[in-house]
Specification:
Elements: E1 6-12, E2 15-19, E3 24-28, E4 37-40, E5 43-48, E6 51-54, E7 63-83, E8 88-107
Antiparallel strand pairs: 1-2, 1-5, 3-8, 4-7, 5-6, 7-8
Length: 109
Amino acid sequence: MEKAEEYAVFKDGSKQYKVTKGDIVDIDLRDVERGQAITFNDVMLFCRKDDIRIGQPVIEGASVTGEVAGPVAGEKVTVFKFKRRKGYHKKIGHRQKYTRVIIKDLNLK
């Protein structure tokens, strides 16, 4: 596997994502339209070839820019509850909603 020339680690909500240019990332659901640009300013690590910068906690002036591809649903999670010998059982399914983002650019000032 070839090492990426340039990558960044950014924080969105309570999650961190390691991305390179062209990656597709599913972030928590947001009310944004398809094709709209979205910028993440909480960049915690930025690596370009041999230049690695680590934020304390974030890097000032660094950002990750992406384009919203639209909403998607995650994998289905099935929850099955029961109590033995009581005749009680309950089956519940859930699909978490996400916003899919295509990473367009990694910026460092």
